[in-house]
Amino acid sequence: METDTHRARGRHKPAMRCTPCGVAGSLRGVRRCRGSSKLSAAMKPDPKDPLAVWADQALRQLPARRAPATLAPRVLAASARQKTSAWHQRPWLDWPRHFQLLSLALFAGLVGAVVWFLAPHADAVSLANAKQSLAQTEGLRTVSIAVDVLSTLGSAMVMVLRSAHLWVIASACGAMAFLWCSCVGLGAACWRLAGDFR
Amino acid sequence: MSDPAQFESFVLAYQDMVFSTAVRLLGNDAEAEDVSQEVFVRAWKHWDDLSGSTTAGGWLKTVTRNLCLNHLQRYRARWKMFSDLAREDDDGEARALDFAAPETLDQALLTSDQRELLEATLPKLPKDQQVALVLYHFEDMDYADIATHLGVSLGKVKTDIFRAREALRKKLQPARDSVGV
Please, which of A6, A67, B14, B56 could form a disulfide with B19 given CB 3.0 to 4.6 Å? Predict the structure, then answer.
């Protein structure tokens, strides 16, 4: 039972092969297929169920499907590509840990710097000038109105936050979190129930 | 033996197992090959741990199974795992126990033609039945584990497996009769 790849390379001789799983036995450290011996003994179907016993016996007679000859070359090419590619060419999740931490620190520093540089310029005069220029531009009046509404709402929220006690804010946040979780939970439950009764 | 050569032997030794697992769960050769490649690429990433491990086969099997289930749930809109859950007659275990035709089921020795027929029939089963059946009979998972993995009810799993077995039996029955088994 040698694949084309086996024959072509002439080095791997799967002398013993576990039929259901197709694991060749000549690999160092692999003495037997662990997937079908230990577990299958514990997972015998109920002997009182003849259909289950029949299906189990029939399905376990099926030999392992042969992997296509292109699989091994594809895997080896992909692994070689991965090995030779520089760390910054890989997905961020595959970067070395210290580069991940460094990039996170840099990103946080960049965001902090932007906020630090822009915050002093976001005063009332600058905002008023920006709004005025928006209002003077044809087609952007709607944006100007939206900015007015949003800034009014923002000012109201700031006033409420400044005047309210901490426990009121905490309670409001807690209530919002509770409502959010309830919505998610209710949605999941409805989804499940709808599925159950379909 | 250097790492790449050792890894190549590893791939050659396990490729049939990984591909078999994938193709039986996915029912599609091309998708199974893609998933198998992804499994081995992940194995390469963990090669330091896997190279000397005697549980590498189990690791590969688990990763293959999980990737296949992810693949099925993510990329197959037509696979309605969650859409046709329990029906009114969904006591699969009870129905399975009621089923009795021992005179036709006492022998499960299949001819090569029947094995081919069985292999060809598996991917044609409804996807949820196929996946549940494969997880039970090939991956040695019990009903509760399958229900947990697939996120469906225990009753649905039992019913799906029962229906899949019955479909296989019906499919093989003419062939069995014709060869006098």
Answer: A67
